[in-house]
Amino acid sequence: MAEFIKLYNDNPNQKQIDQVVKILKNGGLIIYPTDTVYGLGCDITNTKALEKIAQIKGIKLDKANFSFVCNDLSHLSDYVKQLDSPTFKLLKRALPGPYTFILPGSNNLPKAFKNKKTVGIRIPDNNIARALVSSLGNPIVSTSIRDDDDVLEYTTDPELIFEKWNHLVDVVIDGGYGDNYASTIIDLTDGYPVVIREGKGSLEIL
């Protein structure tokens, strides 16, 4: 049975953040709020936890396209090849915000992602998500939790999320109602932006 923890986006309680980070460091899975839909996440450095998420999603880990949720742009150089100036300026304009940017992966990717040519980078405009990453000291690997309902793609109520997921994860964070629109995905691997999925993020930044 997962823990159900209430956090406030305008001022996340550091003691509770530390409690969740301890669980992440021990290989736990969490469901947490972002600036779009609720995400399922784990510590990027924990292969066993990554495998658990892949299993839940019904995919092989080496085929998974998970996002790396970062606190700010300083993590980029760890996981992404050097970017040209226009690309970096676009990221600075858009982030933090409801975007996932697909960028060329570097040679320093964690073991589970060694064969990946690209990575999806997210910096959500959500204090809870960023506080978790900041306290953890490295990105959270994340994927959105979809709903089985044909009408609603994403569950927005944390209590309903807890009911459905509490036997699969270690913590569900209640950060208020989530959004029903996922992030806008923009591929920047060829040096110019290609919109893969239009979501919550406006295309006016391009």
UniProtKB/TrEMBL annotation:
UniProt cross-references to InterPro entries, sorted A to Z: DHBP_synth_RibB-like_a/b_dom, Sua5-like_dom, SUA5_domain
Gene3D superfamilies: DHBP synthase
A GO term, aspect molecular function: double-stranded RNA binding
Pfam families: Sua5_yciO_yrdC (PF01300)
All residue ranges annotated as the YrdC-like domain in the record: 14-201
Transmembrane parts of this sequence: none
PANTHER family given in the database record: DHBP SYNTHASE RIBB-LIKE ALPHA/BETA DOMAIN-CONTAINING PROTEIN (PTHR42828), THREONYLCARBAMOYL-AMP SYNTHASE (PTHR42828:SF3)
Official protein name in the record: Threonylcarbamoyl-AMP synthase
Annotated organism of origin: Polaribacter glomeratus
Source organism phylogeny: Bacteria, Pseudomonadati, Bacteroidota, Flavobacteriia, Flavobacteriales
